[in-house]
Write a structure and sequence with these properties.
Layout: E1 2-7, H1 16-32, E2 37-39, H2 52-58, H3 65-77, E3 80-87, E4 96-102, E5 108-113, H4 119-125, E6 136-138, E7 141-145, H5 154-162, E8 167-172, H6 180-193, E9 196-201, E10 203-206, E11 209-212, E12 216-218, E13 224-227, E14 233-238
Parallel strand pairs: 1-2, 2-3, 7-8, 8-9
Antiparallel strand pairs: 1-14, 3-4, 4-5, 6-7, 9-12, 10-11, 12-13
Helix pairs in contact: 1-3, 5-6
């Protein structure tokens, strides 16, 4: 499977319309390179460490306008997209930090809500998910979803591997100085559970936070198949079977 990892800064000033236009451009580029799936960073459509009240105002259900816009982009470019957004909580609690996979035909395939919140920033903005979402089926592949700190947890990676996942798509907003996550933790956990990991990180700055980039595709043997640097990039690589 050919995968595109979009390493990009978060949108400025919570400009969702601009973020969707950039996603459309990124999808067009990825599709032109033969990619079958595009993975964005965590909270790629709204911004991540923005004011909690701004984030709550941007939260939407899994079938809301953002999902419909992403589905249209996926269909237009015949490309699956895994993207991060704040999912509104039906009880009026803080939103979930979520990732949704939408297939090339525009169908919603799976949603995962971040289980392992990282630090005070996450806890101030989000409600933790209760469990790792089950893998979904696509074109003979069984694919799992995790978000950032989730994919650093051996239990989360093992849970997906036990359910037959061959590949994990992981939108991420890993900040400096935590380079050990992509460089050390990912290869070890991929090899231990025999599952490939596609890790798309943010880059650039958001307020006082600087994101580390280093997006990468890691094979099920722990080998790094392809890796990005610090700056904005579109990393396209074939996941080993």
């Amino acid at each position: 499977m050919r995968i595109a990892l979009w390493q990009t800064p978060h949108p400025a000033a919570c400009d969702v319309a601009a973020a969707l236009r950039r996603l459309d451009e990124a999808a067009a580029h990825a599709a032109a390179q033969g990619a079958q799936w595009l993975v964005t960073p965590e909270m790629a459509l709204t911004g991540y460490l923005i004011a909690p009240e701004q984030l709550a105002a941007l939260a939407e259900p899994a079938d809301g306008p953002l999902a419909q816009a992403v589905a249209a982009i996926a269909q237009r470019h015949s490309l699956g997209i895994a993207y991060g957004w704040p999912e509104c909580h039906p009880d009026g609690a803080k939103p979930w930090n979520a990732v949704q996979a939408i297939g090339p035909d525009g169908q919603r395939l799976a949603v995962h809500r971040k289980v392992h919140l990282f630090g005070a920033g996450d806890r101030a903005r989000f409600t933790a998910g209760e469990a790792v979402a089950a893998p979904f089926e696509w074109d003979g592949w069984r694919i799992g979803l995790l978000i950032c700190f989730d994919v650093e947890q051996p239990s989360a990676v093992r849970a997906l591997a036990r359910q037959g996942a061959r590949l994990i798509l992981a939108p991420t907003a890993n900040m400096l100085p935590y380079d050990d996550a992509p460089c050390l933790t990912l290869p070890r956990l991929a090899a231990e559970s025999r599952v490939a990991i596609a890790y798309a990180n943010a880059c650039g700055a958001e307020g006082d936070t600087r994101y580390g980039g280093l997006s990468r595709l890691v094979g099920a043997d722990g080998r790094v198949v392809a890796a990005a640097g610090r700056s904005e990039d579109m990393l396209i690589a074939d996941s080993p079977d």
